[in-house]
Design a protein that fits this description.
The complex is a heterodimer of chains A (about 350) and B (about 800). Chain A is an alpha+beta fold and about 350 residues long. Chain A folds into 2 domains: about 90 residues; about 230 residues, BirA Bifunctional Protein, domain 2 (2-Layer Sandwich), CATH 3.30.930.10. Chain A is built from 12 helices and 10 strands. In chain B, about 25% of the residues lie in helices and about 30% in strands. In chain B, helix 6 runs antiparallel to helix 9, helix 11 crosses helix 12 and helix 13 packs antiparallel against helix 16. Chain B starts with a strand and ends with a strand. Classes of the chains: A alpha+beta (about 350), B alpha+beta (about 800).
Chain lengths: ~350, ~800
């Protein structure tokens, strides 16, 4: 009987090894381990053995049974794993096929740049305020130290809506409204739309945007102005950017400066972008003119301040290398998608 | 202002290369627009003397010349010209030379004979008779006078010069002239500055025997100086003067006119020369024009004058438009015998208004508009007489008539060096401050750190310590300013609530696939007609720009849809298959028309979409999402926007406020924009939407009990809006209603004419218990009752 058991076990093991199909294995299990299986049959024949031999033989048969069960289970697992592997392989996708697009719009590039600037100045403690686009001559000119016959009115060709009403030519008008309603210390920026009667071309637009900055407090100096603009320039153009002041003239600041930064393209060595100078003009600024402070009821002997005006459109076109300002207002979707 | 470097060197020592000069002037506040090298197109062309001429063996017109170019050996050049002889001085382009016409000359052979250069004609040097006498001769340019062979032709032609274009800021009218700029250069470079000292001799006589001057309106003409010069000797002005005038963009005419122009360029003070003999009654009257008067100016144009315009009249009529342009009648011509010379100050706003009104702008009027110095009026007159004397252009009659309101005192600024520098935050030594101010002509005395500064009238831009601070720093150097980080109380920068809310809308819309656009705030006046708005539509109350760039940009918009349709058209024309756009901007609503006060500027949003997957309901989804952002309860009603499809448009009501409309654009209106497909627009008055206060969000417990779903299918009248069915269901379901969903609308086969089949799925749930069969039955019956009330026929 022992011989027979050995023969059956060996045959079963060989069969397990040979078969690669799940049904074959199942048939095999039934053939050996099922109710009418060959090993079960041996168990049934145990009655013919002597009581001494019986437990011994029982143990041998059980061991063989267990061994076979384990073999079959392992084989089954192996087959399943192989099948899964084949299935997964068959499911391989071409990962270079196009994505299922999530349709996502974007802010206009002017506002993308503006939001960035608002974040920078807000983090430096500047409030963001607003002002009307239709202004009076009083706020747009007189309070800004540009009296009626002043040649500086020629610097900006103005759209008039009525005798005393115009489309603001600069966000500086908002300076005045701010100083009239707030007491120092004042720290605000006023982004907004401004208008000048410039014919439309690649670099001029009758509608454009500025960000006006104003700080008024005791003991404010030009060094503070430079410090703030350096912070700003580092955030926008990178930490190595240098800031240079060039004397200039605006009626509402004294001293007035044009502010240049080192060209972000060449780092100041001189290139096509900066026309070889190494510097790019980004804004006008200065110390708030004593007459302007006075017209807003702030004593220039007690307080001083600085103001700056950044051209948002120019900042946008230079930072994205947009060659024609008209593209900003044409709103071609293929343009808007790029930013 | 364009100035010849050579002209500047007449007044100031310039000891640095032109590029360095310009860089340093920029850092002192004088931006340089351009530097033009006069001679950069004429390279390696020298004066040469013809030493020998021999005929060419192989040609009957070519000649072989041996040229002395100041070198050890003669240079052989072959020429075809016939107008030369031995001994002539001519321009010779040597090997590797460039001519103004662009030609590059190198050694070569002409019919087998070596020619090491080229003899040049006037034409080849781009010269006209005006530039050099004899330049138009057919043949080689024969040079006048004596020149050393080898001399650079640029020197001979006065092309060894640079023209620098300085941008003079509006606060520095004193620098619109050679002397002003030269003075600044002398301070910047620390070199010597010399202004000409006018000296001349008169031939005696007494001006009062020749002319009388009366200033009727001293307010508009604070100073008027007149001089008389007899026996004019009109001829060309000297080359140096012509060159200086030409460099500054003016045209030489004759010695008298050139002197007045030169003195204006030199001193900044415009002058005018009258033909004395054309002045009737020998009178000069400075007065306002009379109604109906007119004048023909030097350019031959006739202008009708109004009473607010100032003229220089003789005994009868206006002879000159004060400060702007002279009259044709009293023009200086080649046979003019006697001169009346004017040097005056006119009020700048009057010149500005007259110039604008007549559309004339001249070198003179530009300077008057910026402002001339009352003291300088006299210096300029003296300088002009000096030049007349030196150039022997006429006989100067003794005496001047000077009508003046009086000369201003120097402005005195008393301050301290500390007060000046506290605006800057840089320490500059006291002595340095004082020396800089003095070098700029601001006579400054120091007593310790106290200073007294006397500002002459020519620097009327300097009013106080802030101006002094700028003067000191622009010379001391702005590079000494070192940035300091923000100081003061630490505060958080705040945004306006409106910005916070619109930022949220923008985030939502970009997330919904819409691109933000930016369009002009003004539109064409006719745009409102293209939208077919009714005559009494309030959006027709538009503000017009008085001086627009053209009709296209003439009207402040009262709505954003016009701009949106333009953008949709642009994109459709460019074959972009689908788009979603939005804009948040202002609409301008006048409080009254004509405009007397600032209008309302109200935040407004427009949305525009088109494409295969877009329809009325995709736009409705976007609109609803925006309203939901503010927690608004949104309802829709049929609307009657003339520019929208009559059956596909709706009025949006948020919390019962009408905030806007949306829908499909009427095909006729779309066609007006060249749009040939279905496009959809919404326009929302954001001021109203933003005013809705969003409820504070508090947590609601998640449901604990199961929900029950019931479907209701029914037949209703085809024109019954499903919104009515929804309202019926929701009122029937009461507080058990969780969700209501339309899942089918059908008309056609098996549905009676005039009816439609509608099916809803309704989710019911109680927060307190699992709904019992009885409760479900009750609510079901209630819903059915409500539905029957609106005429629905329930289907099983």
């Amino acid at each position: 009987m022992q011989e027979k058991l050995k023969a059956i076990t060996a045959a079963a093991k060989d069969a397990v090894k040979a078969f690669e199909d799940e049904t074959q294995i199942e048939n095999l299990r039934v053939k050996y381990l099922g109710k009418k299986g060959e090993l079960t049959a041996i168990l049934k024949q145990m009655g013919s053995l002597s009581p001494e031999e019986r437990p011994k033989m029982g143990q041998l048969v059980n061991e063989a049974k267990q061994e076979l069960e384990e073999l079959i289970a392992a084989k089954k697992q192996e087959i399943a794993a192989k099948a899964r592997e084949i299935k997964l392989k068959a499911e391989t996708v071409d990962i270079t096929m196009p994505a299922k697009e999530i349709k996502q719009g974007k802010l206009h590039p002017l506002n993308t740049v503006l939001d960035n600037m608002i974040n920078i100045f807000q983090s430096m403690g500047f409030d963001v305020v607003d002002g009307p686009e239709v202004e009076t001559e009083h706020y747009n000119f007189e309070c800004l130290n540009v009296p009626a016959d002043h040649p500086a009115r020629d610097m900006q060709d103005t759209f008039y809506l009525a005798d005393n009403l115009l489309l603001r030519t600069q966000t500086s008008a908002a300076q005045i409204r701010t100083m009239e309603t707030r007491k120092p210390p004042i720290r605000v920026i006023c982004p907004g739309r401004v208008f000048r009667a410039d014919e439309v071309d690649a670099t001029h637009s009758p509608v454009f945007h500025q960000i006006e900055g104003l700080v008024v407090d005791k003991g404010i100096t030009m060094c503070d102005l430079k410090g703030v603009l350096e912070q700003f320039a580092h955030e926008i153009y990178g930490n190595d950017t240098k800031v240079k002041f060039r004397p200039s003239f605006f009626p509402f600041t004294e001293p007035s400066v044009e502010v240049d930064v080192t060209c972000s393209e060449c780092g100041g060595k001189g290139c096509r972008v900066c026309k070889g100078s190494g510097w790019i003009e980004i804004l006008g600024a200065g110390m708030v003119h004593p007459n302007v402070l006075r017209s807003c009821g702030i004593d220039p002997e007690e307080y001083s301040g600085f103001a700056f005006g950044i051209g948002l459109d120019r900042l946008t076109t230079t930072s994205y290398r947009i060659s024609d300002i008209r593209l900003l207002f044409e709103n071609d979707k293929r343009f808007l998608e790029q930013f | 202002m364009k100035i010849s470097l050579k002209a500047l060197k007449y007044y100031v020592d310039i000891n640095v290369p032109v590029e360095e000069l310009c860089n340093r002037m920029v850092m002192a506040g004088f931006e340089v627009e351009s530097i033009e090298n006069q001679g950069d197109k004429l390279v390696n062309v020298v004066v040469a003397r013809i030493m020998e001429i021999t005929p060419h063996e192989n040609s009957d017109h070519l000649q072989i010349c041996q040229m002395d170019i100041g070198a050890e050996e003669f240079v052989q050049i072959v020429t075809g010209a016939q107008n030369i002889k031995v001994g002539d001085l001519v321009p010779a382009a040597l090997n590797d030379s460039y001519l103004p016409c662009g030609a590059h000359i190198v050694n070569g052979k002409l019919r087998g004979v070596a020619s090491n250069g080229m003899l040049c004609s006037g034409e080849e040097l781009c010269l006209t008779e005006e530039d050099y006498e004899g330049a138009s001769v057919n043949g080689i340019l024969i040079l006048k006078g004596e020149h050393k062979p080898g001399t650079d032709m640029r020197e001979v032609l006065g092309l060894d010069d640079y023209i620098i274009d300085f941008k003079i800021t509006a606060n520095r009218p004193d620098c619109n002239c050679f002397l002003g700029v030269a003075k600044e250069i002398s301070v910047v470079l620390g070199t010597k500055f010399t202004a000409p000292k006018p000296e001349y001799k008169t031939v005696g006589g007494n001006i009062n025997d020749y002319i009388s001057i009366e200033v009727k309106n001293p307010d508009l003409c604070p100073r008027y100086i007149g001089r008389v010069v007899k026996n004019l000797r009109i001829k060309q002005s000297p080359l140096w003067m012509q060159k200086a005038i030409t460099a500054s963009g003016m045209r030489p005419i004759n010695n008298i006119v050139d002197i007045t122009n030169f003195v204006m360029l030199e001193t900044g003070q415009p002058m005018h020369a009258f033909n004395y003999n054309d002045l009737s009654d020998k009178k000069i009257i400075v007065r306002n024009a009379r109604n109906g008067e007119s004048i023909t100016t030097l350019d031959g144009k006739e202008y009708k004058l109004s009473e607010d315009m100032l003229v220089i009249a003789d005994g009868e009529k206006p002879s000159c438009l004060a400060g702007i342009m002279g009259g044709k009648e009293s023009e200086i011509e080649n046979d003019t015998e006697d001169l009346f010379l004017e040097s005056a100050k006119f009020r700048r706003d009057n010149i500005r208004h007259t110039g604008r009104a007549l559309g004339i702008r001249t070198e003179a009027s530009g300077r008057y508009e910026r402002g001339v110095d009352i003291v300088n009026v006299e210096y300029a007159a003296e300088r002009a007489l000096q030049l007349i004397y030196e150039l022997d252009a006429g006989d100067i009659i003794d005496g001047a008539i000077d009508c003046s309101v009086g000369l201003p005192e120097d402005r005195i600024i008393e301050t301290t060096t500390d007060k000046i520098m506290e605006l800057i935050g840089v320490k500059v030594p006291d002595e340095k401050i004082v020396s800089i101010l003095n070098s700029l002509g601001l006579k400054t005395d120091a007593d310790g750190n106290k200073i007294t500064c006397r500002v002459p009238s020519i620097r009327s831009d300097i009013e106080g310590r802030a101006d002094l601070a700028e003067e000191v720093m622009r010379i001391y150097g702005y590079d000494y300013i070192v940035g300091t980080p923000m100081r003061g109380t630490v505060v958080r920068g705040k945004l306006l609530p409106e910005r916070i809310k619109t930022d949220k809308i923008k985030k939502l819309l970009t997330g919904a696939g819409a691109y933000e656009i930016a369009t002009y705030s003004f539109i064409a006046s006719k745009a409102i007609d293209t939208l077919k708005l009714a005559e009494d539509d309030e959006r027709r109350a538009q503000i017009r720009i008085l001086n627009p760039l053209g009709d296209e940009y003439s009207t402040m918009r009262t709505q954003l849809t016009t701009s949106m349709l333009t953008v949709l058209a642009t994109n459709i024309n460019k074959k972009i298959p689908d788009s979603r756009f939005f804009e948040i901007s202002k609409r301008f609503i006048p409080k009254s028309l004509p405009l007397t006060e600032q209008p309302y500027e109200l935040p407004t949003m427009s949305i525009g979409i088109y494409g295969e997957d877009e329809d009325f309901f995709t736009l409705k989804g976007i609109v609803e999402a925006v309203c939901k952002l503010f927690g608004a309860h949104t309802e829709y009603e049929r609307s009657a926007e003339p520019y929208l499809h009559p059956g596909r448009q709706a009025l949006i009501k948020a919390n019962n406020t009408e905030i806007g409309t949306f829908g499909e654009v009427h095909p006729d209106v779309a066609a007006g924009y060249g749009i040939d497909r279905r496009v959809y627009v919404a326009e929302i008055k954001l001021d109203l939407l933003l005013a809705i206060e969003k409820r504070k969000v508090t947590y609601k417990p998640l449901p604990k009990f199961p929900a029950v779903e019931r479907d209701f299918a029914m037949l209703v009248d085809a024109d019954l809006p499903v919104g009515a069915i929804e309202r019926a269901i929701s009122s029937g379901a009461g507080r058990l209603l969780e969700k209501i969903e339309l899942f089918d609308v059908y008309t056609g086969a098996q549905i009676p004419e005039g009816k439609k089949s509608v099916a809803y799925s309704v989710l019911l749930r109680s927060n307190d218990n699992t709904l019992s069969d009885k409760e479900i039955e009750d609510v079901n019956n209630k819903i059915i009752k409500k539905l029957e009330k609106i005429g629905a026929e329930l289907r099983k």
